[in-house]
Description:
Blueprint: H1 2-9, H2 17-44, H3 48-51, H4 55-84, H5 91-102, H6 116-127, H7 137-151, H8 159-184, H9 187-197
Amino acid sequence: MLSTLRNYLFPERARSRAELARFISGEASYVAQRSTYEFSRNTLAWYGQAAFGDPKFNEAFAICRWEAFAALAADMTTIVRFFLNAGPGLDPALLQVHADVLGEYPAPVHRPEGWGDRHAALLSRFAGAPSGHRPDLSAMGHRTGILIHEYAPARSKNAEEERAVLAAAVTFGLISFNDRLPKRLDREALLAALHHAA
């Protein structure tokens, strides 16, 4: 029990490419699930219980959650890129981390051909900004919030307000992720591991 508590309070820091991918995957999954579920539940209000019992609704909700996960994985990989501040030489290794995250699970039903478009978008994002350029977490949250809203299985007539709510939820998740990086990543070990992989 004490070891479980210690691991919770003082988790081991990621030191390898595989550990980094697992960390990003877990964080992206958590924020995607939280933001999509809370948004859908709040939008549906008292109809939520019935909706989440409907297979068709759950199919649409799963698509929304998957797309949110992929977008957040790209955002978080970009944040890690700045945290490591290792120069463009590590971009191929970080792009592989992103591919590892999205490849951890079988391709979802709505994406039989996988996530090639999302990987290409991250490649373009890296090419368009130096690794030392501080990511704008608010802009990231806004962009990903809009994407989630596009896939949301339940929406009201006030799209602008809903997008703002999703943007705030995602931005909060990205800020929290960014703040934890010094405690969760072993920067020097990761730099060595990723240089070796590159």
